[in-house]
Amino acid sequence: MASTLLAPRSGIPLERLMQMAVERGYSAQGEMFSVADMGRLAQEALGCQAELLCGGLGGPNRDRVLHHLVAGHPLLVPYDEDFNHEPCQKKGHKAHWAVSTGVLLGVQGVPSPGYAEDPELPGLFHPMPGTPCQPPALPDEGSAGTVYLLSKQGKSWHYQLWDYNQVRDSNLQLTGFSPSRAADGREYVVPAGGVRAGLCGQALLLTPQDSSH
Q1: Cα–Cα distances in angstroms (integers) from residue 186 to residues 28, 174, 182, 199, in the given order
Q2: I need a labelling partner for 184 at 20 to 30 A (CA). Which of 5, 11, 103, 153 fits?
C-alpha cells in the first residue's frame, strides 16, 4: 500500500515484508503490535523516513497529519477494525493497520488558485498537478463531519472515506490484547507494556528519503 507511493518502481510484496518482520523479531504470525517496530521495518524495507507520532491524532497532531496528507504522503495508523473495515472501538481486541493516502476537507469557500473543480462532482476540487497551490484552511477540530481520510485496511482491496474523528478515537483506545488471540495457543510478539504501550495513540508519518517535508 504505502510502498507503491514511496517506492512505486520497486513495490515490495506483502509476503517479503512479513518475512522481514519475523526475521527481525518484530512479529511471529504477521501481527505488528508496535508502531516503533513498524517504523523501523518501513525505513528498512521502503528506504523512507518514518516519523513516530505520539499523543493521538487530535490536538496539535491533527494539523500535522492533515498537512502531511495534503502534501501527498501516506499515514500508517493502527485502529480497531469493524466488520466492514471501518474504525470501531473494541479496546484493541480488533487491532489492525490502515494506510491513509488522501484527505477530503469540507471548506467554506472555493479554494485558492491551483485547484480544479471535478467535472462530474460539482463542489469537489482537486489540486492541479504541477501547479503551485496554497493548502486550504483546515476545518476546526470541533467541526464534525468535515474531514475524511481516504484509507484502507491492510487486507482490503478497496479504499474508503473514514471520518477523521472516528479514526482518532479508535486509535486512542487501543489498550488490550484480544482474549481470543490469548487463548488460541499461538505465539505473538507483544512489546513491553502490551498493546497500550505499542499502539495506543500512535501513528507513522511516512515520507520519501529525499523529502524535505
Answers
A1: 9, 21, 8, 20
A2: 153
Q: Is the dihedral of CA 46, 47, 48, 54 positive or negative?
A: positive
Place of cell 512479529: 27
Tens-place pLDDT, residues 81-105? 999 999 999 999 999 999 999 999 9
The SS3 call for residue 149 is strand
**Count of CB atoms within 10 A of residue 186's CB?**
10
**Residues 206, 98: Cα–Cα separation, whole Å:** 13
Please report, for residues 71, 94, 112, 141, the alpha-carbon distance to residue 135 in angstroms, rounded to integers and kept in the order given: 9, 35, 8, 17
How deeply is 100 buried, as exposed, middle or buried, from its count of CB atoms within 10 A (0-12, 13-18, 19+)?
buried
